[in-house]
Amino acid sequence: MNRSIDTPIRGATAVGGLVLIALALALGAGASQARAASVYPAGGGTFTGGAQGWEATEASCNVPALCTAAGGYDGANGNPPGSIAVNTTIGLNLLTLFKSTVTLQSPDFTVSDAGDATLHLDRQFASGSLVDLAPQAAYNATLIDRTAGGKSEVLTESIPAASEFIGKDHAASVKAGHTYALSIKTETSSTVAGTALLGGTTSLRFDNVSLSVDSSGGGRGGGAGGGSGSGGASDQQLRSLIGGSLIGPAVLKGNKVTVKAKCPAKVGVACRITLRGMLSRKKPATSSRKAKVAKGKTKKFVLRVKPKGLKKVYRSKRLLFKETVRAGTAKATLYKRLKLIKR
Asked: Phi then psi for 180, rounded to 5 degrees?
């Protein structure tokens, strides 16, 4: 962010001039500190409108004639809609177990500053019509260092059953000036053998996949994801940083739902959070609540369930939440489903 200070000098004293210069320096220093978080690759991995350069570099299945595996863009599903997906499609007459392997890879990006890094992603596993085959999934996310010629496994997870989008974060290490790429290798398999009349597709989806580098030690900062708001974060960067800010489970007692939300320290400023429980993305289940949450801090939100939705909420094992976060001039909205405990 460029700042221009026009200082009239007529009638100004030397002391006044020094004060204005000091103020300008202070504002510049504050802006430098605010631009501490840089997000890679470009676009912040939101997959809004496209795959943002990600592509499948490997796709195979152990039963080639009856099983196909593919990776690519999914515009209908995401957190919010738009993701990269691994799809395994089983044809009729499969009478054995299947296992597919797909690798997704980001475009290369060059890190401008060294610092503490965090890999974030939201993932969802959908069994589709293959639920009777009890499919399971696993993935490992790797950071490839093109400059040094090495790679490091950052995040590994096994998913034993279908699930909604869940945010995951893990620390990583990067070096200034090095060029990197992110790689996600997936494996989808069945635990029950197929039947001749069963076919369909199972999907493992990823959204908001990004590497955030905290360059508060004095680097140039500046994210890779578009126009900046307060804290140097664009709307896309803010969405990536808050991907795992809702802390489950949610607790239902009487007609009130209690849930915790955190303002990640990497946002750099306080968050203004608006939270609401939802029956669907367009139908509210609860009242909404707003609160200011200091960076790095967590706050409890108590939401009153609407009378018309109370029975449906009580029957639910999980509840969808709509979270809108403002940090400076940046704004991001996420949907996340949390486990619901009744007391």
From this structure: -130, 170
Alpha-carbon span 318 to 340, nearest angstrom? 5
Rounded CA gap, 286 and 305, in Å?
4
pTM of the model: 0.58
CA–CA separation, 25 and 28 (whole Å): 5
End-to-end C-alpha distance for the chain, whole angstroms: 49
Peptide bond into 249 cis (omega under 30): yes
**Which domains occur in the chain, in start order?**
40-214 (2.60.120.260), 242-342 (2.60.40.2060)
CA dist 89 → 64, 100, 140, 334, 342 (Å): 11, 9, 21, 29, 37
Full pLDDT tens readout for the chain, 343 residues: 444 334 343 444 444 444 444 444 444 444 434 445 688 998 788 998 899 999 999 999 998 888 999 999 999 999 889 999 999 998 877 778 899 999 999 999 999 877 678 899 999 999 988 888 899 999 999 999 999 999 999 999 999 999 999 989 888 889 999 999 999 999 999 888 867 667 789 999 999 999 988 765 433 333 333 333 334 456 767 777 776 688 889 999 999 999 999 988 878 889 999 999 999 988 999 999 999 999 888 999 999 999 999 999 999 999 999 999 998 888 888 888 899 999 9
Euclidean distance between CA atoms 190 and 21, whole angstroms: 67
Find the helix or strand (DSSP H, E) in which 116 lies. strand 115-126
Which residue in the block uniquely carries the two structure tokens 């993932």? Answer: 123
User: Cα(49)–Cα(226) distance, rounded to whole angstroms?
Assistant: 15
